[in-house]
Amino acid sequence: MKKQQFLTFLIFFCIFFQTVLPVFAANERRSLFINRSLLTKAEAEYQELLKKEASEPSEELSKRISNLRLHIQVLQEDAVRLRNKLPKSAQADEFLKEVVHRRMALGSAQPINTEQEKEIDKKVTAIHEMHEKALSYVEKKQYDKAAHLYEEIILLNPDDEEAYLLLGHTNLAAGRYERAGQAFRNALNINPKNFEEIPRLYQNILVDNPQDDEAMTQLGFAHLLLGNASLARKAFEDALRINPASVEARRGLMELQ
User: Fold this and answer.
1) What ranges in 106-174 are assigned the alpha helix state H?
2) pLDDT exceeds 90 at position 148
3) What average pLDDT does this structure show over 177-202?
């Protein structure tokens, strides 16, 4: 494919995961922060009312406790709903924050490590900066360095599906098909919906340039790595119709034999 065009689409793909998706995640995180504050306050009040009821029982107090219990349940259900909208890489961090706040609200006798949330934020910031650096390597066509950085991100956060996807595309661009396949499989294990997202990068290139034999070949390998043998064969054959001298397309057909 035209190298500049592939680079443009790959950079767009990277930016989408690092800007558009984080905006969605940021909105959910803000909602979770508000939810967490309300839940902490409600649970603390609930504990105080239980203590008061034990010494001064009354019908009014029982009603307040019952209403507050329902309110807490709604907040907890809302927290689960909001957390599930986040990427899996962020869900665990948010859950840990909720645990810390709940222990604070319940007055746990165990010491609370108030540095936990700072460490979580520090980790998230570090991973974001690594994504940015990897993108700069992609822009310079330094695919080996970009792939190495995505591997480091995965070591820090094994559930980072964006890192797996970008690692797969970067390796595919460099012709390291086995490594690309492994990265894509990991992304699928995290989110099966990535099955449709992986080939879309190359399909988008072909929309603008249907005669791009290299993009067609890359699409063939994407399908091959995903186990779509018939679609892979068609893409390789289309690539050869466009460019009968395509070595990689012939290699792809040989892989299917």
Assistant:
1) 116-139, 143-156, 161-173
2) yes
3) 89
